[in-house]
Amino acid sequence: MRFGVVLAVALVVLSTGCLGGSNGTGYLTVERVDELPQGEGAVSYENLSSAQQEVFQQALDEDGSVTLEKGIDRNEFIDPGYVRYDGDVYRTSVAVP
């Protein structure tokens, strides 16, 4: 019984990309917010990896949404994530098909 529950949870985590470093394709959405919600922190754009910076910038250029290719770490973007960029705060979220 216990093995079945552990297996079911593992399958859900793997299939939904709940692990930040998932290698599956997903979609990053970036939306500017007026202020950081109380109790939330934001990662500085400069602290993102070069691949994360590139996909974040692409999302801004593509009206807020872009495909995350395999191999791009998503930890800083997981729901909700916040990124400080160019004096503004952006809410990020990741959807996995």
Walk me through this protein's architecture:
There is one protein chain. With 97 residues, the protein is of the alpha+beta class. The chain is built from 2 helices and 5 strands; from the N terminus they run H-E-E-H-E-E-E. A hairpin with a 2-residue loop joins strand 4 and strand 5. The protein is globular. InterPro entries: DUF7979 (IPR058285). Residues 26-92 form the DUF7979 domain. This is DUF7979 domain-containing protein.
Regions with little confidence, pLDDT below 50 for 5+ residues = 1-23
Portion in strands: 25-35%
Count of the domains: 1
Biggest beta sheet summary = 5 strands, mixed
How many individual β-strands?
Answer: 5
- The backbone outline, from C-alpha atoms, is globular
Give, in order, the helices and strands. Answer: HEEHEEE
- For the residues shown, what is the average pLDDT? 76
- Name the strands of the widest sheet in spatial order: 2-4-5-1-3
Q: What is the radius of gyration computed over CA atoms, rounded to a whole number of angstroms? A: 15 Å
- As an assembly, this protein is single chain
Q: Given the helix and strand composition, which structural class is it?
A: alpha+beta
Put simply, the count of helices is 2
Protein name: DUF7979 domain-containing protein
Pfam families: DUF7979
InterPro entries: DUF7979
Domain DUF7979: 26-92
